[in-house]
Amino acid sequence: MLRIAVPNKGSLSGPAGEMLHEAGYQQRKASKELVLVDPDNEVEFFYLRPRDIAIYVSSGRLDIGITGRDLLLDSGARAEELLPLGFARSTFHYAAKPGTISSAEDLSGLTVATSYEGLVAKHLADKGIDASVVHLDGAVETAIELGVAQVIADVVETGTSLRNAGLEVVGEPILQSEAVVIRRTGADPDTPKVQQFLRRLQGVLVARSYVMMDYDIRAEHLEEAVALTPGLESPTISPLHDQGWVAVRSMVRTTEAQRIMDDLYELGARAILTTGIHACRL
Ligand SMILES: Nc1ncnc2c1ncn2[C@@H]1O[C@H](COP(=O)(O)OP(=O)(O)OP(=O)(O)O)[C@@H](O)[C@H]1O
Ligand SMILES: O=P(O)(O)OC[C@H]1O[C@H](OP(=O)(O)OP(=O)(O)O)[C@H](O)[C@@H]1O
Ligand SMILES: [Mg+2]
């Protein structure tokens, strides 16, 4: 049985469960379930606090886990990224009252409040900045108003929380984060069960970001059309009963599909269709 750590709460939990479900795994029905065995797929899911996942995985008790890159680095655990998953995207920033600080170098002698003490302490040490760090569990934006710190370091997504607290980001981002699959540093990279798990998730990522496009085009315009829809490997070309026409089938990025359909139409393509991809293995 492959033993997998999954976030049980917070921003990572819902999207991680959805992705695993799309990849064909059973998922828990109630948010209080802590362990779920999926015998058909020979995996066991452990629903753990996102912050603890890297620690469990680094201990070797669990084979792999889903967590945030920022949480992985903050933990300092001996675990490494295998696959970025594209959700819970955020940026980690210093922030302060407007006009007080203009760069990370100005933090010297100040106090930084954060839930990511490990990450911040390392960033300050790497830059040779001598600042104090105070750990808070959450809602750190309020720490400046209440006088606990002059600066915070926190996750920023839309920036709404910072704006509402009358704060602005300071300096360059410390880190770009997203959900990632992790395993213990130095674990065997070729375990077939782990490879199969990663292929399934990669299949979900591709299915989410590509559509299948079909169209008919006169043979003399085929090369120009194929240049617009080169596909991942190479498009499938089939003859049509009507002499001089061919049918083309190719995967295109969902975000580019409408523009490509416009360009194909201009080129003389007709019966241009896109269909969603439910699942795939590349
Ligand atoms: N508003 C957000 N948008 C995108 N990602 C976020 C957001 N808030 C937190 N994250 C990401 O979620 C992970 C944090 O997990 P955590 O469970 O602490 O999330 P949370 O939503 O802050 O939960 P909690 O309710 O415990 O504060 C990190 O990887 C972080 O970058
Ligand atoms: O830029 P935004 O879109 O506003 O998102 C960022 C906010 O979201 C998270 O807070 P959360 O709701 O998890 O509360 P917490 O601070 O208590 O963790 C994070 O800690 C920021 O406060
Ligand atoms: Mg939070």
Q: Output the helix-strand order.
A: EHEEHEHEEEHEHEHEEHEHEEHE
Overall 3D shape: globular
Multimeric organization: single chain
Largest sheet: 6 strands, mixed
What can you tell me about this protein's structure?
It is a single chain. This protein has 282 residues and is an alpha/beta fold. It folds into three domains: 2-88 and 178-189, D-Maltodextrin-Binding Protein, domain 2 (3-Layer(aba) Sandwich), CATH 3.40.190.10; 90-176, Periplasmic binding protein-like II (D-Maltodextrin-Binding Protein, domain 2, 3-Layer(aba) Sandwich); 210-276, Alpha-Beta Plaits (2-Layer Sandwich). The protein is built from nine helices and 15 strands. Helix 3 (69-75) crosses helix 4 (117-127). It binds adenosine-5'-triphosphate, 1-O-pyrophosphono-5-O-phosphono-alpha-D-ribofuranose and magnesium ion (MG). The site of adenosine-5'-triphosphate has 14 residues, from helix 1 and helix 3.
Can you summarize this structure?
The strands form 3 sheets. Strands 2-3-1-4-11-5 form a 6-stranded mixed β-sheet.
What topology emerges from the helices and strands here?
Blueprint: E1 2-7, H1 10-22, E2 35-38, E3 43-48, H2 53-59, E4 64-68, H3 69-75, E5 79-84, E6 90-96, E7 111-114, H4 117-127, E8 132-135, H5 142-145, E9 151-156, H6 160-164, E10 168-177, E11 179-184, H7 192-209, E12 210-218, H8 222-228, E13 236-239, E14 245-253, H9 257-267, E15 270-276
Parallel strand pairs: 1-3, 1-4, 7-8, 7-9
Antiparallel strand pairs: 2-3, 4-11, 5-11, 6-9, 6-10, 12-14, 12-15, 13-14
The protein binds adenosine-5'-triphosphate, 1-O-pyrophosphono-5-O-phosphono-alpha-D-ribofuranose (PRP) and magnesium ion.
